[in-house]
Design a protein that fits this description.
The protein is an alpha+beta fold. The protein has one domain: SH3 type barrels (Roll), CATH 2.30.30. It contains two helices and six strands. It has a six-stranded antiparallel β-sheet with strand order 4-3-2-1-5-6. A hairpin with an 8-residue loop joins strand 1 and strand 2. The longest helix is centred in the C-terminal third of the chain and has 13 residues.
Length: about 110
């Protein structure tokens, strides 16, 4: 807003849309791929909800699609990733642990 009370009316600058390659690179850094099964919960007292990874958001969170098809953007520290346990069964690991492990592998 200008000092005289009028709104600024100029051309808007828009950021170019992110390409599919940009979105998948952001997920690769975390050790994820699109379509991978994850689970999340909003706080420690709520139930786990399963979802699938879709993309990496601009703010650093992970874009998910839940069972009903609703899109969500969840912070990395609230997500657990489905993995194979030591005896071959399904297990869940925090995304922060997987991301730190993949980040260390990139340094080699």
């Amino acid at each position: 807003m200008r000092p005289d009370g009028s709104l600024k009316s100029g051309p808007m600058k828009r950021r170019p849309p992110a390409t599919i390659e940009d979105r998948s690179v952001g997920l690769t850094i975390l050790g994820l791929c699109p379509g991978e099964q994850v689970r999340f919960r909003r706080d420690s007292s709520s139930r786990w909800q399963e979802a699938h990874v879709t993309r990496r958001e601009r703010d650093g969170s992970v874009g998910l699609t839940d069972r009903r098809g609703a899109a969500r953007a969840m912070p990395v520290d609230l997500i657990e990733v489905r993995c194979t346990g030591p005896r071959g069964g399904a297990a869940w690991e925090p995304l922060t642990a997987r991301a730190s492990r993949t980040e260390q592998l990139r340094l080699l």
